[in-house]
Amino acid sequence: MSKNPTTIPRRQLGRQLREMRLAAGLSLVDAARLIERGSGTLQRLEKGENPRIRQLDVEALCKLYGVSTERMDQMKALALQADKRTRSDDESHWWRRYEDLIPADFETYMSLELAAERVTMYQTDTVPGIVQTADYARALDRVYFSADTSVELEQRVQVRMQRQIAITRRLSPVEVDLLIDEAVLRRVAGSRKIMAAQLRRLADTPPNVRVRVIPFSAGFPLGGHVGPFVILEFPSDSATGAPVEPTTIYVESYGTRLYYDSETDVSRYSDAYVKFGRVALNEAESKHLLRCVAKEYEA
């Protein structure tokens, strides 16, 4: 885990405060003056560089920007997670508390994904949400969120579809490098018809989305089971040349979402991805396999 596990919530807090300020039509200098703080202090807060976060500042900014009470409460709760002074023995599990802040719309990960320049994914059993068809997403959610009403289910599917803007937007669409285990092709979600359409979707992704399949014959490239993970890389700042965010590893398991950004963790997951890539089919071979399995489902 990163030596400073509060890095990610600080960045999320800063990004959201900046977006709120811009939406309110205020400059950094004006916003800082109106809450009686220095512009440098507010700038560091928006960049996620200020380890000392005052609840009063966050509350004052939310009131200045005219956000709802519910949004203000969410921002203040996130500020608690981001403040180094609130560190406890359970701090390494901050993502579980943060996950509960906005559980419906998956805002934390989506904001990182939308800001990313390149997203590298390894998936073992399901198609990643960023390239799912609506029917595939619906089939999964109908089981996972079995207590949902039909309206709630459709809202979840729409959130999943909205997330795909990252790869379809006209300006600077995110580059996606996706490695999927052959099990993803063989495990049926919903019906054979749904699977056929989903696999054809994977075979016909836009040029910025590269899909490769790791066949069963590849065995265990790392000598054991490795769960799914995502590597998020971010564009560089035009002024400094440094990435606007450090490369971040995202790992999701049943009920938890984990983020890592230390060099050691990034290197370990990047090395794993390289090893998986060595035994994966190339793009042309993968597309051929995807279409062949789709035909099997259609038959």
Briefly note the structural class of the backbone. alpha/beta
The number of helical runs is 14
The CATH architecture of the largest domain can be given as: 2-Layer Sandwich
Mean pLDDT: 84
Q: Radius of gyration in whole Å, from Cα?
A: 21 Å
Largest sheet: 6 strands, mixed
- In whole angstroms, how far apart are the ends? 47 Å
Tally of domains: 2
Number of strands: 6
Approximately how much beta-strand content do the residues carry?
Answer: 5-15%
Descriptive overview:
It is a single chain. With 299 residues, the chain is of the alpha/beta class. It has 2 domains: 7-99, 434 Repressor (Amino-terminal Domain) (Orthogonal Bundle); 107-298, Endonuclease, Chain A (2-Layer Sandwich). Helix content is 51%, strand content 12%. The protein is built from 14 helices and 6 strands. The protein has helices at residues 7-23, 28-34, 39-46, 55-65, 69-82, 94-99, 107-115, 134-144, 150-163, 165-168, 182-186, 192-203, 263-279, 283-298; strands spanning 118-123, 175-181, 209-214, 229-233, 248-253, 256-260. A 6-stranded mixed beta sheet has the order 3-2-1-4-5-6, sandwiched between helices. Helix 1 (7-23) packs antiparallel against helix 5 (69-82) and helix 8 packs across helix 9 (150-163). It starts with 6 loop residues before the first helix and ends with a helix.
